Amino acid sequence: MVGNFLLANMTILFLPPAVGIMEKFDVIAPYLLPIVLIVFFAAVINIILIALVVQFIKRRFEGDYEKGDAK
TM spans, by residue (predicted)? Predict the structure, then answer.
């Protein structure tokens, strides 16, 4: 239900920031490469951290959940 609401209103959520970026592109242009690199590396770091947390949780709680025999 919430997902459908967000999908239905994506235009309202993303159009104003996109217009703002286009209006101020001359200010943003010199910093475009650093911004893209920061966003890219932040995404990579997040993916790695999430993978490590999932790996930790799987090791910590491995067991037969149907029998209630998790560690």
Answer: 30-57
Give domain status of residue 32, yes or no. yes
Asked if residue 9 is part of any domain, the answer here is: yes
Does residue 45 lie in a domain region? yes
Q: Which domain holds residue 33?
A: 1-60
pTM recorded for the entire structure: 0.63
Q: Are 28 and 21 in contact (CB under 8 A)?
A: yes
Q: What is the DSSP string of the chain?
A: -HHHHHHHTHHHHHHHHHHHHHHTHHHHGGGHHHHHHHHHHHHHHHHHHHHHHHHHHHHHT-S-TTTT---
